[in-house]
């Protein structure tokens, strides 16, 4: 494995009760800058093939604000993320494949702890890929904890998803075991499958270093869910203000599938954004600063004065 360290944050641990006993869950916090007005608290949710810190607190020499947590903290947000069970520093010992519903359970435990520690009344939540499914499912279950939710690289029924069509060919392999090996070529494949020019090689290498520092395998549960059990979410149950983000070249998120989901969201404080020149892992793309600005605008937009 590579050797990467993370600095400037606060390490937290909480637990989740399961039939097999307590499970330890790792959380990482970066506090809002005191130099700007406080803007709220964001909880970031990672995807299927990497833990939280590589995704949201990545540092790349010569790439300003490569860490999304640093950028949002500098703009007045308390920032939190966590390793789902089976990933990174969180426990991995249970004999399960750590599916999306289990990840939503993790978020219930993690947000409860973070609210207690920070005093936050609610969170702004951002999830990417299977993390968007976890964030959406958690928000369906606990809308009182989420002020707004952002779903990036999201998939609803899977219709029109070229990546999932290819991944389904390996479904028997994913069903046969709880974990799948990962290595540096696998991390490269995340960026090569859609449009390689959307990302810089130095970022991919730094991302791979960070991922492989923590894990040499990943759970199969989210892959099984996304290949064989969609839809897992009901848009009519997602009642909080929502933004759907879709990269121009993203092979996971079928455009018509997302528009159909978006159309059924009941809260009219909602947005659908297509991100130019972006494929799947938006915070690692050349156009990452655009993603920050889109999220910042949505998260800081005031409530409508007139709601009809």
Describe, in short, the structure shown:
By secondary structure, the chain is of the alpha/beta class.
Could you please describe the fold and organization of this structure?
This protein is an alpha/beta fold. It has a single domain, classed as Alpha/Beta hydrolase fold, catalytic domain (Rossmann fold, 3-Layer(aba) Sandwich). It contains eleven helices and ten strands. The strands form two sheets. An eight-stranded mixed beta sheet has the order 1-2-4-3-5-6-9-10, sandwiched between helices. A two-stranded antiparallel sheet has the order 7-8. Helix 4 (130-141) links the parallel strand 5 (123-128) and strand 6 (146-152). Helix 7 (184-192) packs across helix 8 (201-214). The longest helix is centred in the middle third of the chain and has 19 residues, at 100-118. The chain is globular, with a radius of gyration of 18 Å.
């Amino acid at each position: 494995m590579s050797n990467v360290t993370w600095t400037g944050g606060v390490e937290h641990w909480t637990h989740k009760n399961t039939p097999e006993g307590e499970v330890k869950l790792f959380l990482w916090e970066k506090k809002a800058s005191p130099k700007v007005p406080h803007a709220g608290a964001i909880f970031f949710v990672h995807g299927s093939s990497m833990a939280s810190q590589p995704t949201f607190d990545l540092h790349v020499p010569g790439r300003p604000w490569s860490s999304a947590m640093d950028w949002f903290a500098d703009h007045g947000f308390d920032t939190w993320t966590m390793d789902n069970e089976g990933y990174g520093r969180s426990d991995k010992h249970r004999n399960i494949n750590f599916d999306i519903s289990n990840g939503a359970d993790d978020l219930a435990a993690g947000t409860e702890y973070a609210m207690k520690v920070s005093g936050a009344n609610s969170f702004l939540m951002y999830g990417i890929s299977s993390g968007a499914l976890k964030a959406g499912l958690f928000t369906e279950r606990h809308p009182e904890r989420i002020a707004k939710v952002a779903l990036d690289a999201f998939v609803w029924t899977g219709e029109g998803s070229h990546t999932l069509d290819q991944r389904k060919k390996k479904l028997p392999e994913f069903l046969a075991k709880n974990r799948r090996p990962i290595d540096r070529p696998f991390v490269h494949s995340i960026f090569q499958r859609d449009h390689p020019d959307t990302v810089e090689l130095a970022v991919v290498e730094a991302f791979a270093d960070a991922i492989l520092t923590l894990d040499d395998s990943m759970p199969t549960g989210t892959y099984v869910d996304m290949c064989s059990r969609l839809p897992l979410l009901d848009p009519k149950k997602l009642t909080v203000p929502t933004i759907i983000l879709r990269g121009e070249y993203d092979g996971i998120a079928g455009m018509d599938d997302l528009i159909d989901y978006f159309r059924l969201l009941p809260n009219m404080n909602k947005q659908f954004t297509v991100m130019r020149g972006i494929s799947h892992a938006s915070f690692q793309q050349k156009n990452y600063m655009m993603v920050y600005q889109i999220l910042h605008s949505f998260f800081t937009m005031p409530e409508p004065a007139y709601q009809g």
